[in-house]
Amino acid sequence: QVQLVESGGGLVQAGGSLRLSCAASGIIVSDNTMAWYRQAPGKQREFIALITSDGSTKYADSVKGRFTISRDNAKNTVYLQMNSLKPEDTAVYYCRSNTVHYWGQGTQVTVSS
């Protein structure tokens, strides 16, 4: 059974940083295209970043240069390092395996101005 468990969300001031984690079980993250999405209140869920099995990364323009996706194969975990956070980054952040189409439960990130 596939499980993706996000953690690391919280409340941070604008300009601050957070690191989100996505611990996977039932899949091997290095064999999957793993991605982060977010959904703000009243808005559609949107793509943020992904990392492919060969380590290639892709980012949404809105986070390029501020967010970094990475993975730790030994821990079977994917990370999202978020720097220079803005109030508009406030959302629930979700981890997803784009390969097997599983979502995590999400973690709330709130950026205060």
Summarize the structure.
The chain is 0% helix and 52% strand.
Task: Describe it.
This protein is mainly beta. The protein contains no helices and eleven strands. β5 and β6 form a beta hairpin. It is globular. The N and C termini lie far apart (40 Å).
Molecular shape: globular
Structural class: mainly beta
Number of DSSP E strands: 11
Beta-strand proportion:
over 45%
Q: Spell out the helices and strands N to C.
A: EEEEEEEEEEE
Number of helices: 0
Q: What number is the mean pLDDT? A: 97
End-to-end separation in angstroms reads 40 Å
Uncertain segments: none
Biggest β-sheet description: 7 strands, mixed
Radius of gyration: 13 Å
Helix share, percent: under 10%
Q: What labels describe this entry?
A:
7-stranded mixed sheet; 52% strand; 113 residues; 11 strands; mainly beta
Task: Provide the fold topology.
Blueprint: E1 3-7, E2 10-13, E3 18-25, E4 34-39, E5 46-51, E6 57-59, E7 67-72, E8 77-82, E9 91-97, E10 102-103, E11 107-112
Parallel strand pairs: 2-11
Antiparallel strand pairs: 1-3, 3-8, 4-5, 4-9, 5-6, 7-8, 9-10, 9-11
